[in-house]
Amino acid sequence: MKNLLNPKLHILVILIVIISDTIGINKISLGVGAMILLPLFYAFIIAVLLNPNVIKASEKIVDKVSLKSAISLVTISIMPFIAKFSIGIGPKINEIINAGPALVLQEVGNLATMLIAMPIAIVVFKMGRESIGATHSIAREPNIALISDKYGLNSPEGVGVMGVYVVGTLFGTLFFSLMASFLASLDLFSIKALAMGCGVGSGSMTAACSGALVAMKPEMEETITAFAAASNVMTYATGLYMSLFIALPVSEWLYKVLSKKEKA
Amino acid sequence: MNNQNKSINLGQNAILLLLVCFIGLIANHIYGFTGANKASMSFLTRLVEGPSGLIGGMIEASYGMAIIYLISLGGLVIAKYMPFYLPSIAWISALAILVASPISPVADVVVAATAKVHFLALTTSVLAYAGFAIGKMEIETFKKSGLKIVIIGLFVFIGTYLGSVIIAEAILKSTGQI
């Protein structure tokens, strides 16, 4: 407990929060569309730069021991967000139940990860069985547990899943907010569909994705958060089973097809 | 299945949740001056108006934050004492949906009070802690796999997002909801 309440870590976080939220939401216009930068992204960058595991010189500001509890605080600090986000579902529950079929079936869309990424991994980058771990899902904690259980983390599949996990940790929130805001600015899809896509089963990526959508269309805020939250809850509930019973077998099959073609 | 949440230390979590909710109140107040509707506000105005008046703004949102705190803690209690395992955030989520849905007698109060707390303001601290949580393992993995895995990872995210959006759009259209 004493370690968890280490004041150094929390004071730094408070300072980072004040700075990041003061910079606020910024919109970058591009020729064809626009992209949104969110405070959560600045907060992450500043913390990474102050982290002595990444930048050695930062040891002068904060020592590694003070950071030991940071991982536990990630788990705790996501809870109020999840509570607030899910409260948004309550008043919209009838609208969400009406959209039930879309909400359930878009979960299948999460399988499209491998359809795009695996061919690139195998054909372009000549990757082996790492590609199964890397592309069967978005590689968050439940998927790591699954791959570790089935293949072991030292297997090629394990190396693959850890690789994409780290990419998600480092670039996930930035990428999701840029992708969602850019897609929204193109006006190709309805805001409900764009919001549902945000529920990928990772709290921070879902937050970044729906936050960017809200910044693009502030008047739609309640609809965006309700649908993103509902989709994220669905992924929490079904994600692991989808990976185990559908995504992994399909990616094994796809791997065989693609690697045979590659050899021929 | 054994409930691995049995080992949750409620007292410790209650204190830490209090801390992160307090940080959330700070973020929320500043966000009021820099949020989605005010993205065009000049940086100088943000700098002056954001952190100033911090205490007053924090009190206004504190009722909503208290509700969010109680739901988070309540979800942890359920997670600990249920005979089967589900992630604690799934229980927190379920509890939040329940108290804010039309069948709940306190739904109006919950929705009105928490409307003063913006969800994005609650994520700034999460990502700050996440930045500090990066350790040797992440850096080593990143160095080993390099640019290749970054590109593949980005295509994984594009696939997940586009796949879900396209299916949702098609079904919403075919059922006449958009």
Structure report:
The complex is a heterodimer of chains A (264) and B (178). Chain A has two domains: 1-84, no CATH class; 100-264, no CATH class. Chain A has a two-stranded antiparallel sheet. Chain A has helices spanning 7-23, 39-50, 70-87, 93-98, 100-109, 112-124, 130-135, 141-150, 156-185, 191-197, 203-216, 221-263; strands at 26-29, 34-37. In chain A, α6 (112-124) runs parallel beside α12 (221-263). Chain A is built from twelve helices and two strands. The mean pLDDT of chain A is 91. The radius of gyration of chain A is 20 Å and the shape is globular. Chain A starts with 6 loop residues before the first helix and ends with a helix. The mean pLDDT of chain B is 89. Chain B has helices at residues 10-34, 43-49, 54-81, 88-100, 107-114, 124-133, 136-174. Chain B has two domains: 4-132, no CATH class; 135-174. Chain B is globular. In chain B, α1 (10-34) packs antiparallel against α3, α3 (54-81) crosses α4 (88-100) and α3 (54-81) crosses α5. Chain B has seven helices and no strands. Chains A and B meet through α1, α2, α3, α4 and α5 of A and α1, α2, α3, α4 and α5 of B.
SSE arrangement:
The complex is a heterodimer of chains A (264) and B (178).
Chain A lengths: L6 H17 L2 E4 L4 E4 L1 H12 L19 H18 L5 H6 L1 H10 L2 H13 L5 H6 L5 H10 L5 H30 L5 H7 L5 H14 L4 H43 L1
Antiparallel strand pairs in A: 1-2
Chain B lengths: L9 H25 L8 H7 L4 H28 L6 H13 L6 H8 L9 H10 L2 H39 L4
Measured on Cα atoms, how large is the radius of gyration of chain B? 20 Å
Which sequence of strands runs across the widest sheet of chain A?
Answer: 1-2
Q: How big a fraction of the residues of chain B is strand?
A: under 5%
Give a short account of the largest sheet of chain A: 2 strands, antiparallel
Number of strands of chain A: 2
Strand content of chain A: under 5%
